[in-house]
C-alpha cells in the first residue's frame, strides 16, 4: 500500500473514536467490543494493515526527528489488563528508539508528593522531534486519586485548597496545560483503552492460569474491580471535561487486542500525517560544501 492510501485508511479507522468535545460524552454509548466493519475473519487482514501502518509510522517519525520542530505526546490510560503495554509495544515496534521515550507513572514517590502533581510529568515531556509516551499520566490525579480519597490526603495540599471544586479545578488546569503544550508545538493525543468488565475478568483468569503470565497478575489489580463503577464514573467525567479539539481523547474499543492496536496506530498516523513534516532543506552553501567534499573524497584513494 502507498503511504497516501495508508493515511486515508488510518483516518477512516481513527475518526469514529475521536472525542474533541466532551459535552455530550457518555461511556455507555461506546462498545468495548466494537470492531467497526471488521469481523473476526478479517483479523489477519487487520494485522497486515497494522504492519504497513507501523512502516508508515517509521517513515513519518524519521521526518519528525530530522525536522526537529514538533513534539508528540501520547497518553495512555486504562483499567488494568486493557492492553496498554501491548498496544504501546506493537504500535511503536517500527520506530527509532532514539526519537522515542516511554514513561510509566506508578504510585508517586515521597519526592513526587513533595511537588505539585504535574511536576513528575513535566520533567519527561518529549523534546522537539521526539515522541513521548505516557503509560498512565497526570490523569491518574482525576482517576485513582478520586476513587481513593486516602491518596489525596497524602498529597500534602494546604487544607483550604481542598474544596468541592477540586476536580473541576484539576480539569481546568489540565486543559490549560495541554493548550500550553499545543501552543508550543507539542501535539497531544490521549487514548482510553475501553475494556469491558467481563473481558478484564477473562484476562485476569488467564494471568492466573498461564504460568508465563503469572508475573503480570497482582491481587491489588483484582481488588480494584470492586471499584469498577466508581472508575467508570471518573473516566466519564474526565473525558467530558478534558476532550478538546487540540487534545482529543480516543475511546479505543479494547475487548479485541488486534482492533485496539489498529485504532491506536491509525490515530498516531493521522496525527503525524496532519503535520507539515519534511526533511530539512539544505542551503546553497551546504550543497556547495557537499560537492567539494565529494570531489575531495573521489580524488584520493
Ligand atoms: P501493569 O500493566 O504492569 O500492571 P501498571 O501501569 O498497572 O502496569 P503498576 O505497577 O500496577 O503499573 O502501578 C500503577 C499503579 O499506580 C496503578 O494502580 C495506578 O493507579 C497507580 N498510580 C499512578 N499514578 C498515581 C497517582 N498519582 N496517585 C496514586 N496512585 C497512582
Ligand atoms: Mg497494574
- Rg measurement, Å: 22 Å
Count of structural domains: 1
CATH class: Alpha Beta
Largest sheet: 6 strands, mixed
Shape: globular
What does this structure look like?
The protein is of the alpha/beta class. It has helices at 3-14, 43-67, 84-91, 110-113, 119-122, 144-147, 149-153, 166-183, 197-209, 219-224, 228-242, 257-273, 284-299; strands at 18-19, 71-78, 100-104, 131-135, 186-194, 249-253. It has one domain (3-299): 3-Layer(aba) Sandwich (Rossmann fold). Helix 1 packs across helix 12. Helices cover 49% and strands 11% of the residues. The protein is globular and about 75 Å long. The protein is built from 13 helices and 6 strands. 31% of the residues are buried. The longest helix is centred in the N-terminal third of the chain and has 25 residues, at 43-67. The chain has a 6-stranded mixed sheet, sandwiched between helices. The site of adenosine-5'-triphosphate (ATP) has 14 residues, from helix 6.
Summarize the entry for a quick read.
It contains 13 helices and six strands. The protein is of the alpha/beta class and 301 residues long.
Secondary structure elements and pairings:
Layout: H1 3-14, E1 18-19, H2 43-67, E2 71-78, H3 84-91, E3 100-104, H4 110-113, H5 119-122, E4 131-135, H6 144-147, H7 149-153, H8 166-183, E5 186-194, H9 197-209, H10 219-224, H11 228-242, E6 249-253, H12 257-273, H13 284-299
Parallel strand pairs: 2-4, 2-5, 3-4, 5-6
Antiparallel strand pairs: 1-6
Helix pairs in contact: 1-2, 1-12, 2-12, 3-12
The structure holds adenosine-5'-triphosphate (ATP) and magnesium ion (MG).
Magnesium ion is lined by residues 80, 218, 221.
Amino acid at each position: 500500500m502507498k503511504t497516501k492510501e495508508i493515511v486515508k485508511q488510518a483516518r477512516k479507522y481513527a475518526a469514529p473514536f475521536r472525542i474533541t468535545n466532551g459535552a455530550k460524552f457518555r461511556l455507555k454509548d461506546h462498545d468495548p467490543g466494537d470492531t467497526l466493519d471488521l469481523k473476526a475473519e478479517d483479523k489477519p487482514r487487520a494485522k497486515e494493515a497494522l504492519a504497513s501502518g507501523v512502516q508508515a509510522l517509521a517513515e513519518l517519525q524519521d521526518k519528525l526527528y530530522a525536522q526537529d520542530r514538533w513534539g508528540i505526546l501520547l497518553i495512555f490510560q486504562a483499567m488494568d489488563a486493557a492492553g496498554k503495554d501491548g498496544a504501546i509495544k506493537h504500535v511503536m515496534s517500527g520506530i527509532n528508539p532514539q526519537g522515542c521515550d516511554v514513561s510509566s507513572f506508578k504510585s508517586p514517590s515521597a519526592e513526587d508528593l513533595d511537588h505539585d502533581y504535574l511536576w513528575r510529568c513535566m520533567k519527561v515531556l518529549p523534546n522537539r522531534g521526539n515522541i513521548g509516551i505516557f503509560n498512565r499520566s497526570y490523569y491518574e490525579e482525576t482517576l485513582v486519586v478520586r476513587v481513593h480519597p486516602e491518596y489525596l490526603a497524602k498529597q500534602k495540599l494546604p487544607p483550604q485548597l481542598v474544596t468541592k471544586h477540586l476536580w473541576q479545578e484539576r480539569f481546568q488546569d489540565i486543559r490549560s496545560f495541554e493548550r500550553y503544550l499545543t501552543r508550543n508545538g507539542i501535539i497531544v493525543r490521549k487514548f482510553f483503552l475501553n475494556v469491558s468488565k467481563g473481558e478484564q475478568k477473562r484476562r485476569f483468569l488467564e494471568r492466573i492460569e498461564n504460568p508465563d503470565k503469572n508475573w503480570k497478575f497482582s491481587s491489588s489489580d483484582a481488588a480494584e474491580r470492586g471499584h469498577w463503577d466508581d472508575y467508570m464514573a471518573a473516566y466519564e467525567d474526565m473525558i467530558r471535561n478534558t476532550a478538546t479539539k487540540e487534545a482529543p481523547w480516543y475511546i479505543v474499543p479494547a475487548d479485541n487486542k488486534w482492533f485496539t492496536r489498529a485504532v491506536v496506530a491509525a490515530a498516531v498516523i493521522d496525527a503525524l500525517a496532519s503535520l507539515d513534516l519534511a526533511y530539512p532543506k539544505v542551503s546553497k552553501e551546504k550543497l556547495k560544501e557537499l560537492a567539494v567534499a565529494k570531489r575531495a573524497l573521489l580524488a584520493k584513494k
